[in-house]
Amino acid sequence: MRLVKINPPDVHRTPGYHHVTIVEAGRLAFLAGQCPLDLDGNVVGAGDYLAQADQVAANALTVLNAAGAQPADVVRSVIYVVSDDDQVLGAVWQRLNDSALGPAFEAASTLLGVASLGFPGQLVELDLTAALPD
What we know:
Blueprint: E1 3-6, E2 20-23, E3 27-30, H1 49-66, E4 74-81, H2 86-98, E5 108-113, E6 124-132
Parallel strand pairs: 4-5
Antiparallel strand pairs: 1-2, 3-6, 4-6
Helix pairs in contact: 1-2
């Protein structure tokens, strides 16, 4: 499997992600949205965006590993944050990028502020697609 990441010169610069990620060959893993839930299914970090981002990153690393993938194998990410505050969105983006999951966000990435997510008290969710090794 080979990944090609492109930032065309005629499009705006990005803060670390690439506009296009091409998977040359191989299989793909589509991960369910990773939520800030502990092993018992409880939302962690009530009201704390960064604590929830940490749990989401930990869960995503576990699920990627189960699929036989690593953060660098991610070809698409979508981060959902219950906020319309640019500072909050940026803080969650930075926290995820600074985590062990950070290489996942060098691929095509989207960060969205949303009105709500699936669990009461949930503030962050992460959707990943990974290219699996041949």
